[in-house]
Structures are given as C-alpha cells and as structure tokens.
Write a structure and sequence with these properties.
homodimer, alpha/beta, 12 strands, 38% helix, binds 3-isopropylmalic acid
C-alpha cells in the first residue's frame, strides 16, 4: 500500500461518544497523510431478520468485504432478547481472538510503571455460550463450552503473536483445578501449541493467583492467553493498571485475515455530544489497525504523536485530569504530526 | 466465656508449612492468655469411604461438634479423582460464605494505602459444581449452578455483616449482562435482601469493571458479595493490593453458627520445615475466630501485637523482605503481648 492508494476500511462510529472519537481518528489519520476510504456503517434501529440483531446484513458484509475495520462503543438497546451488539459482531464475524495490549503511557502516572502486557482472549465461546436455563424453580444453570477448535486457534494466534512481536513468554490462564474438563481442554491445546515454539517460555497460571500477581508485580507477565470470561476480567484489570479502558486499544482477529479494531470502553451517554470524550482508546485501536495493514511507519508516526501529546500533559481530557475538549486534544495530536 | 474456661476448637495444622504456622498460633494465643483446648485433626492418608475423601469422618465431626475451628493449608494429594480437601470441607460442612477481609497493614508498604475491603464469597456452588462432561470429542462443557437458596443466604450474610460491622456499602459483583439467568438470579436475591437494609448503600458492579476499579481506586468499595468463582478471583486480587495471601485471613461460615477460619495461601512445600514461613495469615485467621467467639478484647490484643510487630519492621519473614525465622517473628509478637 502507499498512502496515495486509499485503503477501504469499515468504520462503526458507534453510539454515545462514538461519533466524536471517530471524528478524531479521521482527523488524525488525515493529518498523518494516511488515506483511508472509510466505509461508515450505522447500526439499524430495528432488528434485521437476516442477522436477528440491530446489526444489519450490510454492517456484517462491510467488514467481510473490507476485511478490516475500526469500531467505536456500541450500546445494546435495552429490552427483551436483544443480544449485545459487541458480542453479535464477534460471533457473526467469527472474530476468534481479542488482542488487548496494556502498556504504561509515558507521562501518564499510575501506581504502576513500565507495564507491558498483551492479553489474548478467546472471543467466541466459553462462558459466553448464551446457553442457560432454569432446571427447577430457584435453580438455574449456565453452560460453559470449550472446544478444541476454538482453543487451538486462539493458542496458535497467541504463540504466533509472541513470536512475531519479539515476546518471550506466554502464560495460559485457567482454573483447571476446578474446571478440569473445560479449562483442562484449553490448557491441553496450549500445551500442544507451546511445543511448536520452544523459544517461547510457556507457563500455566491459575486465574486467582494470576490476578494477585498482576497487581503485585505485572512485570512477571508478558503475553497472556485465556478463555473468554477470564480474558474479559484480566484485560480490564490490566487496563486498570495503566489508567483504564479509555487508554487501551484492542483488536478482534478473525479467519482469512479479518481484523476489527475496537475501543472497548462504554459509550458514555452522559458526556456524549459535549466534546469531552477521550479518543485515545479508539486512536490507539486505529494504530493497531494500521499495523495490521502493515502500514507500520504511519502507525508509529501516529502512535508517537498520541503518546507525546499525553506525555506533555498540556492537552488532556477530563478523564485524565485535564480540561481539554476532544477537539483540542485531537488538534494537539495533529500538530505533532 | 472467660479465658479460664477453655474453649474447644478444631485445629487442622494442614500440610507443608501448616504445622509450623499452627505452632505459632498456639504460642501467640498462650502468650495472650487465651486458653483454647485445641482438638487437633489430621487428614487421613487414604480415602475414608464415609467421606469419599482423605478427610476422615472424625475430621468433619470435630468441626460439627466444636462449631469453630482453624485450618492451615492443605495440599490435595495428586492422583485420579481426589477432590480438593479445601473444597470438600466447604461442601461437606456446608460452609456457605467465605469472608476475606483485606486491609493495608500499617508499616507494610504496597502500592496502595488504606485498603479496607471485605469480600464475601458464595462458597458451595456456581462454577464449583463439579458437573462437567464431554459432549462430543473436542467439545466439553461445565455447568455453573446458581440456586436461590445459596444466593439468599450469602446475600443475607453479607448485609448482616455490613450492618453489624458498621459498613456503609455492599457491592454485588456479577456478569449478568452475559449470564442473565445464573448471575441474574444471584442479583435478584441481592436486590431482595438489600431492600431490608435501607441504611446500607447497595450497588451492582460487573466483574470486569470491578477489577478495573479495584486496581485504580480500591476505596470505591467496601463490602463485596459474589458468586463462587468471582469471589475466588476478586479475593486474591484484593489480597494482592495489600501484599498477598500470606497476610490476609479468611473465615468460612456455615449454618448453626459453625465457623472455620482458614489461611488460604498454599502449603509452600519448598520451605516447609525450615522455620521460614510467615504465620500472619493463620494468626489473623485465628483472630477472626476469636471475634466469632465474641472474645473481642483478646482478639484486639493479639491483632495489635501482630500488626505492631510487622509495622516495627524489625522482625519480618523472608516473604516480606526480612530475615526472621517463623519462631523469631512469633516470639516478637509474644513479646508485644
Ligand atoms: C459489553 C460486554 C458484553 C463486553 C464483554 O463482556 O465482552 C465487554 O466487557 C468487553 O470486554 O468487550
Ligand atoms: C485451592 C483452590 C481449590 C481454592 C479455590 O479455588 O477456592 C483456593 O484458590 C481458595 O481460594 O481457597
């Protein structure tokens, strides 16, 4: 790709603060001469019978066709039987791995320095099966489903990621002392894949101990791979170490090279439309998308501008203790480019 | 009770470092003139057919008879089909609530100051049902079971605890946006109980967000109540905030006033028998046991001696960066009494 051949990418601005932070991404990309032909997609206002969701058929086709996209926060309409839009996207597009890097932002102080963690979460099954029922009155059950297929592909993704990103260690997180069969199968798959990567240090860590060690000494970890719910929990914990979901990017990986980068924070309806939102998570997710497109130079250029703007501290949004508007902060980043 | 009428209590010294730290408790209690008639119980070396576990019938009867006990770490013998001894005790004795206070120890610095959290964990069901099977090759499932009965009693325990301990807030931790039926039932029970305690602030927090907020700002929380696995995870996370499981006590609560205080750290076979173990978690669990027995004055006396010894910093075991032996540290506490 050259920056003069526009690349087509799906953009879901999403709800609440979504459109504002998506606008910020467009401006920053333009300022960096990264020409993306954004295929903007809006979620429907009623259920599309072809998807059984507010996500339309066109929404899904757009990602499948462009193979790459960026997604803002989506609020699931409240009411009976509406599946979470975030989850519907992951399932319908078979986005099997969710990659969430969490690293300390230079200049933005938290209790932790030099955090540098990658959580890789199985994204399609486990505790998110949606299979639940009442056995008798007052007794309900949920099914956690673990398959060899989904465990193998996420384990393979994690080790390949570690190798191609110069990472030294993969920790498989589990509770196989209790869920011997499900988490046991997950671990067995990780064990199998680990054998093909003798150069990567491999360990298994029980989730409760993992959480304790993460808050005591996050430097013990590097790449972490795990079933769906543990990934949900641990990726938020890791985000907390460096300042929260407003600062951490993510990308969902599917088959055939499909990748949907995503800001995983909420849609913050209380500040929506007020030019107060922090676009950092979506911007950094955009950077992940560029890296996925192998536009590494442009990705690093934009990444530095974001990091430096935050580090300088002059322009920061309210969530980081500053008084800047979304547009001031965005302009400051553009000025760095 | 007066300190001259010996109270009978079960003591499981447990495995690994268990006997050494149990000895420390006995010495400290004696130095504080707390006379306990310890009914020492040792786990069997083969399966007792009446319990289908290495825990013997006598082990269980001892707790049921004395109604109060203290337990060191137990290592589950490795091999086929051995249930975890810790879990067997909880299930067989119907110890339905697991209370784990996590508070900053004055003088022992971590990244967090003034942590003061109580996690109350449902202790008998949920993800710990043990119900799992292979559906077809490569597809396994685990059942998470939530019952109204177990949810109500742990919710009631949590609110009563909050009230009787002068706590202001109870947070119910869940993932009901995904597990609507199971975690939904748990929340419904918490909602119902909360209505009876209008003076206690009540909120519901999604587990991923809870973990993020706990590492960002633990002062947002007070008492937390949750299903089994979330309790396992969050109590370890909270312990990490104040230094780890070597410093945090716990108590398991059953029907009819039964209470089994427990150090939940491991048996540390690598340092067993070397006079190196830190007895703090078991000592503080012993203090919880004394409070349960309403021996509040004695409990506070011992508690202060432990806290002050750690705060002074002269006698600390290796895990806290010191060079003291278990017996030196124990003696230092006794000298404070
Ligand atoms: C919104 C919610 C359904 C979602 C999840 O549980 O996966 C979110 O927490 C996330 O991590 O993306
Ligand atoms: C040892 C293990 C089975 C146990 C649990 O998972 O409950 C432990 O982590 C605990 O928290 O007491």
């Amino acid at each position: 790709f050259s920056s003069t051949t526009p690349i087509k990418a799906t953009l879901f601005p999403g709800d609440g603060i979504g459109p504002e932070i998506a606008e910020s991404v467009k401006q920053v990309f333009t300022a960096a001469d990264v020409v993306i032909d954004w295929d903007e997609q809006f979620v429907g206002t009623e259920v599309d019978p072809r998807t059984n969701s507010f996500l339309t058929w066109e929404n899904l086709q757009s990602v499948l066709k462009n193979k790459v996209g960026l997604k803002g926060p989506m609020a699931t309409p409240i009411g009976k039987g509406h599946r979470s839009l975030n989850l519907t996207l992951r399932k319908e597009l078979n986005l099997y791995a969710n990659v969430r890097p969490c690293y300390s932002l230079p200049g933005y102080k938290t209790r932790y320095d030099d955090v540098d963690l990658i959580t890789i979460r199985e994204n399609t099954e486990g505790e998110y099966s949606g299979l639940e029922h009442q056995v008798v009155k007052g007794v309900v059950e949920s099914l956690k489903i673990i398959t060899r297929k989904a465990s193998m592909r996420v384990a393979e993704y994690a080790f390949l990621y570690a190798k191609t990103h110069g990472r030294k260690k993969v920790s498989a997180i589990h509770k196989a002392n209790i869920m011997q069969k499900t988490d046991g199968l997950f671990l067995q798959c990780c064990d199998e894949v680990a054998k093909k990567y003798p150069e990567i240090y491999y360990e298994k860590v029980v989730i409760d101990n993992c959480c304790m060690m993460l808050v005591k000494n996050p430097a013990l970890f590097d790449v972490l791979v795990m079933p769906n719910l543990y990934g949900d929990i641990i990726s938020d914990l890791c985000a907390g170490l460096v300042g929260g979901l407003g600062l951490t990017p993510s990308m969902n990986i599917g088959e055939d090279g499909i990748a949907l980068a995503e800001a995983v924070h909420g849609s913050a309806p209380d500040i929506a439309g007020k030019n107060l939102a922090n676009p950092t998570a979506l911007l950094l997710s955009g950077v992940m998308m560029l890296r996925h497109l192998k536009l590494n130079k442009q990705a690093e250029h934009i990444h530095s501008a974001i990091i430096n703007t935050i580090a300088e501290g002059k322009y920061r949004t309210a969530d980081l203790g500053g008084t800047s508007t979304t547009s001031d902060f965005t302009k400051a980043i553009c000025d760095h480019l």
